[in-house]
Target: PvdJ/PvdD/PvdP-like protein
Amino acid sequence: MKFSRRGFVAGLAAAATLSAGVYTHRKWKESEAAELSSDEPDTPVPVLPDALLANRLVGVWDMRFIAGRQDFPEIPVGELQLLLDIGPGGRALRGYLGAPPYAGDILQVFGRLSGDKAPFLNLRMLDNQGRSLECRAIFDEIWGAWSTGGGKATLSGRLHRSGVQAGLSTQEASFVAVRRPFTASRERLSYAPELKAWLVSPGHRLFHQVWHACRDRWHQLESTQRQGLRALGWQAGPLGKERDARGKHRHRNGSGEDFLFMHRDMLIRARAMQDLRSWISLPPPRPYIGHGIQAFVDYMANLDGFSVPPAWEVEGDESFNRWLYYIKSSEGYYGAFQAWEAQYRDPEYLSTLCLGELGSRIELGIHDWLHMRWASIPRDPNSGLPMPFGRGSADFAEHWYRPGNDYLGDPFSSHVDPVFWSFHGWIDDRIEDWFLAHEQTHPGQVVRKTIDGVPWFAPGPWVRVAEPWLGPARAGCGAWGRSNRGDGGELDMETMKLALRIVFADEEEAERLEDRVPRRPWYGRHLTRGDQHD
Model:
């Protein structure tokens, strides 16, 4: 590529002056509203306030009695846990009060979901002799709605026997129950030191983000932004033949081949350092407590590292809250993920797709949803406090580079989460299904070929791209006239930061002009923005 210093400086100047006050803010709002939706199904959630309340209550609560326990022989002995669950499509709580192994002396728990009455909660408890207790509790979260990401919460209240009016002479037992926090996948699944060092390295974090960002935003960028990226070698594809990932030609321009190839290249590199297994099939959702108590408890403890973290909420963004709840729910698994899994294993369907369309449909559909289904609420790496809006797209502060930043909702950090490799391995395995489907239907029309050490396919009737795009070539031009790749082949970090600032210049201006512009996670930004409230 020929480097034009004049063109490069012009690109930088254009990026610096791109923010044109109200005009830029209006253009940003228009582009948000006009963003093409991903290939996603509907997200039906019957009564959102009730569903969100259930999301906060489901779990294992360690229960401690403060007074009055001795007056109620119905209450099981030992250190008790209150187990609360809601079934697929359910609208009421179901659970148990007892001590491990939850057999014999145990109380069944029933409760209505009434989001309009929160934080007050009424439960009924029934022992195996038919004796009934009434429980009234107050639900409290340390950080309010943000705590639904698995933070601290309490239920405090009193219980008495059914049929007895509450009063000074009524026998009552008072209690406090504390919800157990979600155990992150990183605590169950470990990395080899060499692999972890590569994954958390600043260079790889920046590469993964800028590679996704320039492809995802290319069709929205102003011509001055595009020129700035071309000057840096970070245009979305070969120079002059850019391939955006979310524009109207996304299924036909070969961007899906870039998506599949880049992640296969990442997998090969990572698996050379550690054996990272693909999911054979997508892990099932939380087992309903009515079908087995211990299976529910084990899932909530995330014993295998693949339990789905709780959803969180963003104030004033109801459509996002509904979407995220559905993605993480059992209904979402059975209604969307299972359908996708069957579709991408179906030879009849796969044999109708070019490789680029397969990759594009996977990227904009199940791929984004897999990221968000297994994402935990983003947290500040310094304090551990929840940050529902996550990291700013062009925020390169030191603390975001720390190993603990493995948030799946942001390409800057998603590859650090161990679950990333399980579902990207599953996606990569669908390429072989696609090849076998074409061998069955169109024998000889798809030819295997190795490209830069990556097993791939030669261009033909079902493969469009001869050289999938992995970022700037070794001879590409970086910032300030430097090579975009060093002698060891590594990409220049300052060039990648500059490219990201160009891509997100309009977003930064919008945040400046508004007190707060709610940011959705990267893999959840392609929804219609919900109503905002002060």
The chain has a mean pLDDT of 86. The two ends are 49 Å apart (CA to CA). The beta strands are 59-67, 80-85, 92-98, 107-112, 120-126, 132-141, 153-161, 173-179, 448-451, 454-457.
